[in-house]
Design brief:
Shape: globular
Structural class: mainly beta
Low-confidence stretches: 1-25
CATH class: Mainly Beta
CATH architecture: Sandwich
Strand content: over 45%
Number of strands: 13
Length: 191
């Protein structure tokens, strides 16, 4: 009986966390739901082929979900696949985190945001890793304070993340494990 009560409480908490973004009093604001492709941002793939690698991956919006799917190859000094938004500007002033509902494959991914910050003439990416659970829907919360500046795989000392100047949102996989990968994203929000 105690297990049933604990399970019911757990289900109620999970249900409440998924519905928070629908509550007008919630601090969470949905950015993307992938329901109407015409109003969603454009997504592009950037894979390790830019440096001779053989990984394949890309975005697909289908059935109300963003799919990031492909095959990671470690050949030819490769080992990463990524997707990112194009031509968007976001002001997350006063917000503290990005929240994502997704289903994964048990692999480790990175959330990546870019601002107007540049290093050697190219955009600085601000990254944080998260682990997915194979075949399970989860909600991932990435506090902005956990984002680290990177440039082409190299960790940087700065500049600090400016939440008012976000120009790109994206996902990257570079877990050093060759093989197929896929995450499905239901929605993205800020809080």
């Amino acid at each position: 009986m105690k297990s049933l009560i604990l399970f019911s409480t757990f289900c109620a908490l999970i249900s409440a966390s998924f519905s928070r973004a629908e509550d007008p009093e919630s601090p969470m604001k949905k950015l993307m739901e992938f329901k109407n492709q015409a109003t969603e941002p454009e997504w592009i793939a950037v894979n390790d082929g830019v440096m001779g690698g053989l990984s394949k991956g890309g975005p697909l919006i289908k059935d109300g979900l963003l799919h990031f799917v492909g095959n990671l190859s470690l050949e030819n000094s490769g080992g990463f696949s990524s997707i990112r938004t194009l031509n968007r500007k976001y002001d997350f002033s006063g917000k503290t985190a990005l929240v994502i509902r997704l289903k994964g494959d048990g692999r480790i991914y990175q959330l990546r945001l870019a601002t107007d910050a540049r290093y050697r003439g190219s955009a600085v990416s601000y990254a944080a890793q998260f682990t997915t659970e194979n075949g399970k829907w989860i909600v991932v919360k990435v506090p902005f304070k956990t984002l680290s500046p990177t440039w082409r795989g190299m960790d940087l000392e700065g500049p600090p993340f400016n939440s008012s100047k976000v120009e790109e949102l994206g996902f990257l996989i570079a877990d050093k494990k060759a093989g197929e990968f896929e995450i499905e994203v239901d929605w993205m929000a800020v809080e």
